[in-house]
Amino acid sequence: MSGAADGQRLFVGGAWVEPDGGHYAVVDPASEETVGWAPEASRDQVHAACAAAREAFGPWSRTSPEERAAVLGRAAEIIGSRFGPYAELAQAETGATTGTARAMQVGVGMARFRRYARVEPAEWAVAPQINEAGPMGEAGVMGALAVRQPVGVVTCITSYNNPWANPAGKIAPALAMGNTVVVKPAPQDPLSVFRMAEALEAAGAPPGVVNVVCGQSAEVGEAAVESPDVDMVSFTGSTAVGRRIAEACGRDMKRQLMELGGKGAALVFDDADLASAVAGIGTTFSFYSGQICTAPTRVLAQRDVYDRLVEQLDGYARRLKVGDPRDKNTAVGPVISAAHRERVESYVELGRKEGAVAVTGGERPPHEHGFYVAPTLLADCTNEMRVAREEIFGPVVVVVPFDDEDEGVALANDSDYGLIDYVWSGDVARAFRVARQLRSGGVGINTVGRNMEAPFGGFKKSGVGRDVGSYALHAYSEVQAIVWPG
């Protein structure tokens, strides 16, 4: 049994164990009721999980890729068989709308396990090289293979906005490559990750291959990063926390994959399809209630369309129903917690003080329960305002005008972040020309959609490394060269 009547157990070395630190309440952001009781691990229990992963690494890394893929495939089937309850739990933990919980949380999580159940070559030939002279003093032809080898034990620290897709995007490729993992989910909504561990256990993952520890204390994450048994840390979260993790990794030369903050610029040119731009930018209000690092939160509008774009975004935001995420008509659910609601509201107030105009929103919705923030549109902004520079992580869009293409590009690049930017233009040549000048890991042209095989990651303070698709297999591996005389 993974959970007891009084709370969820930790998953360490293939066993479900009681947490040393007791339990804490996981709260539904929509109702403010308790969803369940999450475990608080001690530092010793985290280190025990890391040691269990280290012990399991040797045997797991020596299994065939086909055998590892079969475990991931069975896990996907098990998740599919429990889809309804898993989606209900994800919705209760995160406050996601029903469509988001089903499709983007559990649905994408399941798809990622299926994706890495597909075996891909882990080695490739390197062109033979003719050496005119070598250490032996004779000319020769040298053949070579580049081989992907697993890194070892990977600590996966996951984000609260998607407790299915984000952990699955780390765990599945890491296991496919032959690594073992210690997963530390976000404290706000960890219960779904324990369900994922149950599915992997039922699918035949050997003891110690997957471990899940949890806790509200920063000590839990610190122990999972600093353990000498850990070879790599994969983290999704804020740049501030990512910086501290990177410093700890640097001391021991641990590998790292960092997917950090974003302040996505959406350049809307005067020849853009405004309806398309408004629909894309509008996802900031509704998708995870703006709690997503890829959102087009910083709109740069060419002056000829600025007023029309603000007017249409205003109309779009006002039509969105805010409320119970279980209601099929709801577009905007709550943010994750009362503390985060206060943070978002403080940014809106800061924007007003800086001179921005709250065209839409800015007031707390009149709900008796739940951590709701109204979709908010801040116009007449400048790129120097803090609301235009700092990640708010809520349903807030700022709009900044620009005159010509060069200024638009300069404003977009004038940011500490560089995760995903967007370009809306009817001139495809211009859109691609602008995209190539943007200092960001990804650019959406006339879309906020993603290709789930395309590399994902950021420039600047938005992160280090790339994952998704085959790029994740590279991220969770080391490349070894094997050379022989031809």
From TrEMBL:
Transmembrane intervals: none
Gene3D superfamilies for the chain: Aldehyde Dehydrogenase, Chain A, domain 1, Aldehyde Dehydrogenase, Chain A, domain 2
Pfam families listed in its UniProt record: Aldedh
Keyword Cytoplasm appears in the UniProt entry: no
Domain (Aldehyde dehydrogenase): residue spans on this chain: 16-482
Keywords assigned: Oxidoreductase
Name recorded for this polypeptide: Aldehyde dehydrogenase family protein
Organism: Streptomyces spinosisporus
